[in-house]
């Protein structure tokens, strides 16, 4: 089993409910255990400014799935929750699930890059990740999470106080 950090985001169709549904689906993946979930954060959208704010979180999944099999499963969850893949990047979406870190692996495949590209510039990923990751987490490429946080201000983020996110998913640790 490998420890995988997954970024979750939504800004359409009741984003908090979208994340709850995604967490439930993650908890039901074969060969996997949903181990922890961060708080929810509201963030300004990347790309077009004429879209709603996002709701984001990070989850820890302990899984025996191979990286591309997990990616396929995550994309299936996105589609099941109404995700439409468009050519426009960073547009509004019902659900976005990204593999941020996959154990100690560095992955550079056409469909998957781990650690996730631009991770270091995304406060809406780094701050929820820091809630549930070990204090001295070192990414597979040698970067330390604490250094990435120091270089990425909290600006534009709002920590939401929704205790019901993990309530819909049983046996999940919330830190």
Automatic annotation (TrEMBL):
<comment type="similarity">
    <text>Belongs to the HPPK family.</text>
</comment>
<comment type="function">
    <text>Catalyzes the transfer of pyrophosphate from adenosine triphosphate (ATP) to 6-hydroxymethyl-7,8-dihydropterin, an enzymatic step in folate biosynthesis pathway.</text>
</comment>
<dbReference type="GO" id="GO:0005524">
    <property type="term" value="F:ATP binding"/>
</dbReference>
<dbReference type="GO" id="GO:0046654">
    <property type="term" value="P:tetrahydrofolate biosynthetic process"/>
</dbReference>
<dbReference type="GO" id="GO:0046656">
    <property type="term" value="P:folic acid biosynthetic process"/>
</dbReference>
<dbReference type="GO" id="GO:0003848">
    <property type="term" value="F:2-amino-4-hydroxy-6-hydroxymethyldihydropteridine diphosphokinase activity"/>
</dbReference>
<feature type="domain" description="7,8-dihydro-6-hydroxymethylpterin-pyrophosphokinase">
    <location>
        <begin position="89"/>
        <end position="100"/>
    </location>
</feature>
<keyword id="KW-0547">Nucleotide-binding</keyword>
<comment type="pathway">
    <text>Cofactor biosynthesis; tetrahydrofolate biosynthesis; 2-amino-4-hydroxy-6-hydroxymethyl-7,8-dihydropteridine diphosphate from 7,8-dihydroneopterin triphosphate: step 4/4.</text>
</comment>
<dbReference type="Pfam" id="PF01288">
    <property type="entry name" value="HPPK"/>
</dbReference>
<keyword id="KW-0418">Kinase</keyword>
<dbReference type="InterPro" id="IPR035907">
    <property type="entry name" value="Hppk_sf"/>
</dbReference>
<dbReference type="InterPro" id="IPR000550">
    <property type="entry name" value="Hppk"/>
</dbReference>
<keyword id="KW-0289">Folate biosynthesis</keyword>
<protein>
    <recommendedName>
        <fullName>2-amino-4-hydroxy-6-hydroxymethyldihydropteridine pyrophosphokinase</fullName>
        <ecNumber>2.7.6.3</ecNumber>
    </recommendedName>
</protein>
<keyword id="KW-0067">ATP-binding</keyword>
<keyword id="KW-0808">Transferase</keyword>
<dbReference type="GO" id="GO:0016301">
    <property type="term" value="F:kinase activity"/>
</dbReference>
């Amino acid at each position: 089993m490998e420890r995988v950090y997954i970024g979750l985001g939504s800004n359409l169709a009741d984003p908090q409910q979208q994340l709850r549904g995604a967490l439930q689906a993650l908890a039901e993946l074969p060969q996997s255990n949903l181990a922890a979930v961060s708080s929810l954060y509201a963030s300004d959208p990347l790309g077009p400014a004429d879209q709603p704010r996002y709701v984001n979180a990070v989850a820890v999944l302990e899984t025996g799935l191979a990286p591309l099999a997990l990616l396929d499963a995550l994309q299936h969850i996105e589609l099941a929750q109404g995700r439409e893949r468009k050519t426009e990047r960073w547009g509004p979406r019902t659900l976005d699930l990204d593999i941020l870190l996959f154990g100690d692996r560095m992955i550079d495949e056409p469909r998957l890059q781990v650690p996730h590209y631009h991770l270091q510039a995304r406060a809406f990923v780094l701050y929820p990740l820091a809630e549930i990751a070990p204090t001295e987490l070192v990414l597979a490429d040698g970067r330390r999470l604490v250094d990435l946080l120091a270089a990425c201000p909290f600006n534009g983020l709002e920590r939401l106080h929704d205790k019901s996110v993990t309530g819909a998913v049983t046996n999940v640790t919330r830190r």
